[in-house]
């Protein structure tokens, strides 16, 4: 399962290049967006970390467990894999503190474990 985010300051909404199968919980904070399959949000920050924390806060408000940035380590939790425009965040010179720019694509993959 992955959540794809396009940084789009021009406000053009499209599903082009996005996956067809979407888990129902992905739209929990924005139920009005289910039919379009696209969510448009504004965040207060400008870095990858700020985007992830803002998304986590929005999911928490609707009781969805989505917290890619571990509050204890202040780094990406091992249940997630985060990339920015095709490059894993670890390979970015500023890591999670990399500034987002128009055209960037953020992909958050959830590494689901079945602990039995």
Overview of the structural elements:
This protein has 116 residues and is of the alpha+beta class. The protein is built from one helix and six strands; from the N terminus they run βαβββββ. The protein has one helix at 48-60; strands at 2-6, 69-70, 75-76, 80-84, 87-88, 105-110. Strand 2 (69-70) and strand 3 form a beta hairpin. The protein starts with a strand and ends in a 6-residue tail after the last strand.
Sequence of secondary-structure elements: EHEEEEE
Q: Termini, distance in Å?
A: 19 Å
Strand fraction equals 15-25%
- Which structural category do the helix and sheet elements fall into? alpha+beta
Question: How much helicity do the residues have?
Answer: 10-25%
Beta strands, count: 6
Which term fits the overall shape?
globular
| Low-pLDDT residue spans | none
How many DSSP H or I helices?
A: 1
Radius of gyration: 14 Å
Query: Averaging pLDDT over every residue, what do you get?
Result: 81
Largest sheet: 4 strands, antiparallel
Strand order of the largest sheet: 1-6-4-5
Question: What's the short version?
Answer:
It contains 1 helix and 6 strands; from the N terminus they run βαβββββ. It has a 4-stranded antiparallel sheet with strand order 1-6-4-5, with no helix packed on it.
């Amino acid at each position: 399962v992955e959540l794809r985010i396009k940084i789009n300051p021009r406000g053009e909404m499209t599903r082009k290049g996005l996956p067809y199968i979407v888990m129902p919980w992905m739209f929990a904070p924005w139920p009005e967006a289910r039919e379009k399959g696209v969510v448009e949000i504004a965040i207060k920050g400008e870095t990858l970390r700020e985007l992830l924390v803002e998304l986590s806060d929005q999911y928490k408000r609707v009781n969805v467990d989505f917290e890619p940035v571990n509050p204890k380590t202040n780094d990406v939790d091992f249940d997630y894999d985060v990339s920015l425009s095709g490059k894993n965040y670890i390979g970015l010179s500023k890591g999670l503190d990399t500034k987002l720019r128009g055209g960037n694509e953020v992909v958050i993959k959830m590494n689901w474990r079945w602990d039995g």
